[in-house]
From TrEMBL:
DUF4055 domain location: 227-368
Region Disordered: start-end pairs: 427-451
Domain of life assignment: Bacteria
Name of the featured protein: DUF4055 domain-containing protein
Amino acid sequence: MIRAIRRGAAAIREAGEKYLLKFPSESKEEYSRRLKSSPWRPEFMDSLQTLSAKPFTKEVKLAEDATPAFEDIAQNIDGQGNNLHVFAKDVFEGAVSMGAHGILVDFPTGTGAVTLAQERAQGVRPYWVPINADDILEVTTEQRGASRVVTYLRIKESRIEKTGFEQRRVPLIREIEPGAFRVWREEKRADKTEWVLDSEGAMTLDEVPFVFFATADKEGDQYVRPPLLDLADIQIELYNALSKKEQTFTIAASPMLTANGMAAPDDDSAIETGPGRVLYAPGGEGVNASWDYIQPNAANLKEIREDIREIIEDMRRIGMQPMTQKSGNTPALAFQFDGEKSFTVLQSWALGLKDALEQAFVFTAKWMKSEGQAPSVMVHTDFAVGLYGAQEVNALLEARKEAQISQETFWDEMQRRGVLGPQFDREAEKERLAIENPPFDPEGQLDPVVA
């Protein structure tokens, strides 16, 4: 469901009755029309992107003591031109939406290099591969001393094969265990589908270089309940509510005509409702014929709009979007509390990402046979800053005015909130302030230039 929601309106409509309920007596043609006209509002994706963007308002980078070799790898972490920041953002968004994401630290095989010097001369280096949660088929771990290590991994992959002008995606399954890997290819026979061995090779590490990053509690080695699953359910609820609204407003805009006291056409067809239809109510002796319209009550339309508005508000509250004060019936304190709660959850996720990235660098160091220690990764986790908006800045200004905090502390806090940009240079600022605010000279004896 979450994967379909992330793909958008086309994927949801393609799923048909799986996500848009069909009325018991609704014809296939009527349902098809309603399916095509049902609105889609991507509230789930809006919340997901808002949550996922928070740790990346500042660059994800290596600590200052990282070696040049690791810095070079971080600039092209996946071998496809993406740096550590971009790669980490995709991993984090995948883990927030699906509950987990994997990082496989792979190494090229078949290069012919025998020694470390030969590998470096050829530019051979490890690279990271992101693995979606629903592509992880099996993970097996075991306890080795104080560490839990992966001893078996089975994942889904694919490969594009070209024949003439046609391209075909071939499903693959990769198995990895200490000492070896195998790739299986799907082949469809006349009567069945088989998996045949496509390639295999050796792996020198004594464990599978795989990092499983989860944003919720794990069940076993690989199963996780997505933290936004309830939000996804409400997204489908909103989709169905919008469909009903569209249907009701369509009928309201094109009311049905009734023919009271008139005979219906001579056919045995079922009574149909909707725009452009006529309902006949045959009358007896003494009944005056009349024409009239049937349409929804205006009060019902208002209730439908209010219901949809409440669903959207619930989604935004549960999705932790309203992180600032809100006017209206809901107390601002309640929304601030939701914001603080979301930041607490986000902080734990961001710290988990930091651990996952650092573990991936441990595997990278093993592949590189590096003598130095794997580098630390800097991930932004100071989310509570700015929760109360302008109130925080005003409080800092007042504290500085009353000399309750130093100038240096004031600058630090303003930089944390993004009020002062990354180009701010405090040493240069001190020189400017000295020029604009010369020392106080009550006797008037100092030379103006010196002052």
